[in-house]
Write a structure and sequence with these properties.
The protein has helices at 9-18, 30-41, 78-94, 116-129, 143-149, 171-184, 236-240, 263-266, 312-325, 382-397, 433-442, 448-455, 470-481, 485-503; strands at residues 20-26, 46-49, 65-66, 99-109, 139-142, 158-169, 188-190, 193-200, 207-214, 220-230, 251-262, 271-275, 282-288, 291-295, 299-300, 338-347, 362-366, 372-376. With 507 residues, it is an alpha+beta fold. Among the domains are: 9-59 and 172-250 and 358-397, FAD/NAD(P)-binding domain; 253-343, 2-Layer Sandwich (D-Amino Acid Oxidase, Chain A, domain 2); 433-503, no CATH class. The strands form two sheets. Strands 3, 4, 5, 6, 11, 12, 13, 14, 15 and 16 form a ten-stranded mixed β-sheet that branches. Strands 1, 2, 7, 8, 9, 10, 17 and 18 form an eight-stranded mixed β-sheet that branches. The chain is globular, with a radius of gyration of 22 Å. The model has no long low-confidence stretch (mean pLDDT 95). Bound molecules: flavin-adenine dinucleotide. Flavin-adenine dinucleotide (FAD) binds at residues 26-32, 49-52, 56-59, 61-65, 67, 194-195, 231-235, 239, 256, 296, 342-345, 377-380.
Length: 507
């Protein structure tokens, strides 16, 4: 099925400057994209601008789980688990092409911080908070039961464990699907369009729009809006600083690193929940096609979200945990196919102590000059966050709109079936040249990184992060976007820089 077309980029840029919007959303991560979709579906005139690409920030660097958040039980965030479990159920129903059930095995070893009885009680509560409507209920497992699920787990000291259900997604595609559906509902969405200044109605009046810089064409556009919404994730405080009188930090970033290694080295069959042998934190070994993803870390950071990268110590911490649970893997730094980092945009207030126990709940606030800011939250709860945020926008505007329908309306974004003659970009991965065409024609991909990092996760699954296939991708894109030879050379150069920025492991 061919997806509905959205206007070309040039037309969308024109539209940005052409009218006064009800709502300008700054930031095209899952939070901003979800808000733009909900607001547009309710009938508001919406613009969504993203300085890089949709999902280029934290929303392409998550653990890709749509989960109730079993570890939040320990910290008593029952409301968050309840809400996340409800959203997991909805996303499994409404976006089965993007969200699929994933079974986790939690092995318990002698002397573990979470003993078997506590795990059993916790998972019973986990099922109860999902109103026993999760994909399946948890099962307590004896030692042999755990090894039957995951034969490559360390058998030494294993006393038993449990199996339970959560769900997995492709975080970037989930984000792009929301942005595109916002456009299908008449929102004007533009990636590679950066807010450089906010504008105000008079010296002390309310915010009435923004100056937006088109990072591809170089033009400046004055976007007028009745309300501006800051959904810039870890960049939130930078947008807030554009207000004359910012009201203190809104986000506190913690850094999370993941690594991908060849799946056959680890030999996990499904997802495995691990307690870090170093500090007892909950971590995961996750299946990802030909790869296994190990993550994550959770450390306070002052690194800029644009420059955040994995460090050698992060990589060793993750490898160490995986080797302890899967001793035959004997992973070393040479086995790491890719390592990357993202920043959790946690709510600043009340989050002072241990990052692992910091709340993942979200906060919505309105500044003295009328800018609405949303911080915190999770990929899993984005739809509910968007609903609350758009309610706040509607109250602020004092208008009547259609009711929120995102809890019932399926999310589009299915990948079209491949033609048999369409060859794969890389033999062992499923992505094809037709996916590149689809990304450019229907999914707003403008750069090689938009395609290889976010419309398909190829860059995370190749040691060269897709540099070898980049010329082929550039040729297809150049054809569609009318790039000159110099334009193709520039795009390839830019991609090489992006790969260094995202995937370099700092010593
Ligand atoms: C390591 C890690 C693992 C995680 N795992 C999970 C998980 O498994 N499940 C889960 O539910 N949640 C998970 N999370 C949390 C989840 O990923 C985040 O809560 C979510 O992605 C945040 O999305 P966001 O849209 O708020 O921020 P972002 O995705 O960072 O989006 C903000 C956007 O604003 C843009 N922007 C910045 N400045 C400007 C400007 N001037 N003009 C225009 N745009 C601008 C940025 O380019 C960026 O794209 C994880 C987080 C991390 C870090």
């Amino acid at each position: 099925m061919t997806p509905p077309n959205i206007p070309r980029r040039a037309q969308r840029l024109l539209a940005l400057g052409d009218r006064r919007f009800d709502l300008l959303v700054v930031g095209g991560g899952i939070t901003g994209a979800g808000i733009a979709r909900d607001a547009a579906r309710r009938g508001l005139a919406v613009a969504l601008v993203e300085r890089d690409d949709f999902a280029a920030g934290t929303s392409s660097r998550s653990s890709r789980l749509i989960h109730g958040g079993v570890r939040y039980l320990e910290h008593g965030y029952l409301h968050l688990v309840f809400e996340a479990s409800r959203e997991r159920r909805r996303l499994l129903d409404l976006a089965p092409h993007l969200v699929h059930p994933l079974q986790f095995t939690w092995p318990v070893y002698r002397g573990a911080r979470v003993p078997r009885w506590k795990l059993g009680a916790g998972l019973l509560l986990y099922d109860a908070l999902a109103l026993f409507r999760n994909v399946g209920r948890h099962r307590r497992l004896g030692r042999e039961g755990v090894l039957a699920e995951e034969p490559r787990l360390a058998a030494d000291g294993l006393t038993g464990g449990a199996a339970y259900w959560d769900a997995a997604t492709d975080d970037a595609r989930l984000t792009v699907a929301n942005a595109l559906d916002a456009a299908h509902a008449s929102a004007t969405i533009v990636n590679h369009a950066e807010v450089r200044a906010l504008t105000f109605d008079g010296a002390h009046g309310p915010c009435d729009g923004a100056l937006v810089h088109d990072r591809i064409g170089g033009q400046e556009i004055r976007v007028q809006a009745r309300v501006v919404l800051n959904a810039a994730g870890p960049w939130t405080d930078e947008i807030a600083a554009l207000e004359a009188a910012p009201s203190g930090p809104a986000v506190r970033g913690t850094k999370g690193v993941h690594i991908a290694v060849p799946a056959e080295r680890v030999g996990n069959r499904g997802a495995v929940t691990m307690l870090s042998p170093d500090d007892g934190r909950v971590m995961f070994t996750l299946p990802a096609g030909t790869h296994t993803i190990i993550g994550t870390t959770d450390t306070p950071t002052t690194e800029h979200p644009h420059e955040v990268r994995a460090h050698g110590a992060d990589v060793r911490y993750l490898l160490g945990a995986c080797n302890r649970f899967f001793p035959e893997a004997r992973l070393s730094e040479d086995d790491v196919v890719a390592a990357w980092a993202g920043i959790r945009p946690l709510v600043a207030s009340g989050n002072r102590g241990d990052p692992a126990s910091a709340s993942r709940e979200h906060a919505i606030r309105t500044s003295a000059r009328g800018v609405i800011t949303i911080t915190g939250g999770k990929l899993t709860t984005y739809r509910a966050m968007a609903e609350q945020c758009v309610d706040a926008v509607v109250r602020h505007l004092g208008v009547r709109v259609r009711p929120c329908d995102t809890a019932h309306v399926p999310l589009p974004g299915e990948r079209p079936a491949a033609h048999p003659e369409d060859v794969r970009l890389v033999p062992e991965l499923p992505w094809r040249e037709s996916d590149v065409v689809q990304a450019v024609r229907f999914e707003c991909a403008e750069t090689i990184a938009d395609v290889l990092v976010r419309r398909m996760p190829l860059a995370f699954e190749r040691r060269d992060h897709g540099l070898a296939v980049a010329p082929r991708v550039a040729a297809v894109m150049g054809n569609l976007l009318r790039w000159t030879d110099a334009g193709i050379a520039h795009a390839l150069d830019e991609y090489a820089q992006e790969v260094r920025r995202l995937f370099t492991v700092e010593p």
